[in-house]
């Protein structure tokens, strides 16, 4: 299991106190951005985060930001979490991606019994990786399940402490129906990292440094109490205790990369020719405008959600347009970032293709991250279907874990 280094009494006494607020974490993150940028080529070459980079991130507090205050955690809002991931991604996209995934640990605790979660996570900076979609086979046995399967996209699994994996439930080899009438039930299973075998498959166009390898779990016993579903909250309350909360900070990665690319392009233009020509000025302005609009869309949708949830409301208290704005703004951020980087790549022409220019890496990274489910057309279908009273293919992106009530059918 990947763990933080054990410190001597003297070293521990000199270690900085854990961050208590999102502002503190963001301040620490901004301080390491130049170091992340300097390591980007190495991170891509290694196809995973080097362990000293993982510990550098851990020291900022990013992996503890989802833990509740009742645990001694900072309980950072989704808005601040996204700003933090945005700042890390400005330094290195793969580091931002792994921080975004690994920091979900504190968000999962709401869906576990508190005593179980505290036993599983004795430290608040433990890292979780894994694929949530059910591709594994979980056979019901006394006290839990025997889990077997192979999963893709285990971002950060090479440095994780726990692995969370979706699996279909079977009883005596036959599919087990769900309590809501689903013909085949599924759950999320959490196992220690040493129970998973990493398969080195991560040879990709972009985000190479995220180490998003395949992994297998073979006939591992998973106690029932270490399984969860997002429709059942077992402890906690508030804005972070939501079924799709783990999706909230995802747009921080593309927004951070787009900002980095724009700053790089502006510096290059300033170095070559003061003010640039007409085409350069128009392109920079268009890209700035697109980033500003996309960023405001993301943060505006999250702020409205936070207002409703922090006042004691639920996602059902959002208007249909407000609820659909959450997944739509996330998807738009990914697609807009890819467009911005592509246009700037063309603007800088041949200088984009030579190392150590980061433009080529950002181009590949944004194209790769746009293949994630949150950036796909399935999000458009789900939001559009919800707005039109039809059935979303991916209702969880809207925070829906039960059959959806169509907008206008007796609700907001």
From TrEMBL:
Residues that span the membrane, as ranges: none
Region (Disordered): 1-20
Domain of life: Bacteria
InterPro entries: Acyl-CoA_dehydrogenase, Acyl-CoA_DH_C, Acyl-CoA_Oxase/DH_mid-dom_sf, AcylCo_DH-like_C, AcylCoA_DH/ox_N, AcylCoA_DH/ox_N_sf, AcylCoA_DH/oxidase_NM_dom_sf
An example Gene Ontology biological process: fatty acid beta-oxidation using acyl-CoA dehydrogenase
Keywords: Oxidoreductase
Domain spans labelled Acyl-CoA dehydrogenase/oxidase N-terminal: 26-123
GO cellular component, one term: cytoplasm
A GO molecular-function descriptor: flavin adenine dinucleotide binding
Span of domain Acyl-CoA dehydrogenase C-terminal: 254-376
Similarity section: Belongs to the HpaH/HsaA monooxygenase family.
Listed name of the protein: Acyl-CoA dehydrogenase
Lineage, top ranks: Bacteria, Bacillati, Actinomycetota, Actinomycetes, Streptosporangiales
